[in-house]
Amino acid sequence: MKKQQSPPAEPLLFVDAIEEGRASLLLDEDAFTVPASLLPAGARAGSWLSLSLRVVPAPPSRADAIRKKLARDDDGGPIKL
Fold first, then answer.
1. What burial class does residue 36 get, using C-beta atoms within 10 Å of its C-beta: 0-12 exposed, 13-18 middle, 19+ buried?
2. Residues 32-58 pLDDT 10s
């Protein structure tokens, strides 16, 4: 009988500092910065955070909508400035 694997534990990040809108985070020996606006409410220097990420579908492209609108509004004549 195959043993069921438990889901991987969520990594823990340490908030080392928050300065000028940037948060310095530590993940084991790796250090990196992110916009402080990404932190959950109440997070401050010295806080521990659990990290949870998931893959999601790509958001719809605004460029496609803009191209469709421009094509729909184009009468085929010369460009008017």
1. middle
2. 999 999 999 999 999 999 999 899 998
User: Taking the alpha carbons of 46, 47, 48, 53 in that order, is the dihedral positive or negative?
Assistant: negative
> Which residues, 6 or more positions from 38, have their beta carbon under 8 angstroms from its beta carbon?
23
pTM over 0.70, yes/no:
no
What are the residue boundaries of the structural domains of the chain, listed by start?
A: 11-52
- CA 51, distance to chain mean position in Å, is 12
Return d(Cα 34, Cα 2) in angstroms, integer: 41
Separation of alpha carbons 37 and 22, rounded Å:
8
Q: Is 3 helix (H, G, I), strand (E, B) or coil?
A: coil
